[in-house]
Design goal:
Helix content is about 85%, strand content about 0%. The protein has about 180 residues and is an all-alpha fold.
């Protein structure tokens, strides 16, 4: 139950800190940084860890997030491709930022390289997200009842599964470094 409570706290913090859309990148990176500690068994005060990580990641995550947001907005004529590229990068950019020190440009480049190099893993992560999001969006009756779940634990729990699925990717990156 402690882990569930931690995920609830993280989800609410992520949601609140992402409300100004420009801060979503820092919120995502902070979430993954704290999730990495939870997975590694370094349990602690998740709110304090989240805000510390948010402050540490603000400078490098905000430009990445704003660039990804701009790419999606500016490529409205071909939104499908822009969103797909942004989603590929987004799948790995913030988890990479939470784990490795690098410039924001290198994080973007590395995220794309890791996405292409680990395409099956990326597609699995997308499937993990697509099922609950799809059910919530395309079956309104279910989506209505799940809305409280989304507010309390939705994003952080899916991010937790994503972080678990990224462990082998990070292990291979660490071995090749």
């Amino acid at each position: 139950m402690e882990r569930v409570w931690s995920l609830i706290v993280l989800n609410v913090l992520w949601l609140v800190c992402s409300l100004p859309v420009g801060t979503m990148g820092a919120s995502c990176a902070a979430l993954y940084q704290v999730l990495g500690k939870l997975i590694a068994g370094e349990d602690g005060h998740v709110a304090r860890q989240f805000f510390r990580a948010w402050g540490e990641n603000w400078k490098k995550a905000t430009p990445v997030w704003l660039i990804l947001l701009a790419v999606a907005a500016l490529c409205g004529f071909d939104l499908y491709m822009a969103l797909q590229l942004a989603a590929m990068v987004m799948t790995f950019a913030f988890p990479l930022m939470a784990r490795y020190e690098n410039t924001w440009r290198n994080h973007l480049k590395n995220a794309m390289l890791v996405a292409v190099g680990h395409l099956p893993r990326m597609l699995l992560i997308w499937a993990v997200w697509a099922v609950p999001v799809g059910v919530s969006v395309f079956i309104p009756e279910v989506g209505f009842y799940l809305s409280i779940v989304w507010v309390l634990i939705g994003y952080s729990s899916l991010s937790y599964v994503t972080a678990l699925l990224l462990r082998p990717v990070f292990r291979s990156l660490d071995e090749n470094a």
